[in-house]
Amino acid sequence: MTHNTVLELAEERARASIGSEERRSLGIVRAEDAAEFARAAGESAPCLVDPARADFAVHPMYVVSLLRGAPGADPAEFRPDGMYRDEVPGTDGLDVRLMAGGQAVRWIEAVRPGDRIELRRTLTAVERKGSGAGFLLLTVEKAYGAERGTLVEVTERFIVR
Prior knowledge:
alpha+beta, single chain
């Protein structure tokens, strides 16, 4: 299959899923995991890295970094490049190159230890860019919520070549 044919197939699949909402449980936020994330991100503020503190706070980017719930994913869930097979709409099983194309994050309410996080994800746009075969630019809207409502909204773009 030529690169152009593969890209056309990815575009067709992606366009067919525009507007379809997917939901995924990301599990319960554990203070220890959030503190580990903050340390790995280079944070040193005690309120972000010490879950035993009374003023402990979950790093604002922690929930946005979550792709799945509990660790221990089946290796069949991954693409050869290490991404989850279904993370970029329309590309599962296709030999395409994927790149992050930008992200805008809107914080609505702080994430707290103990929050049960649910992700809602919707592909909202598919654009063909460039000359020749070019590439696809996919826009995905995500909302990370807990029982008390939406906590974080994210607009992500993916480049598919």
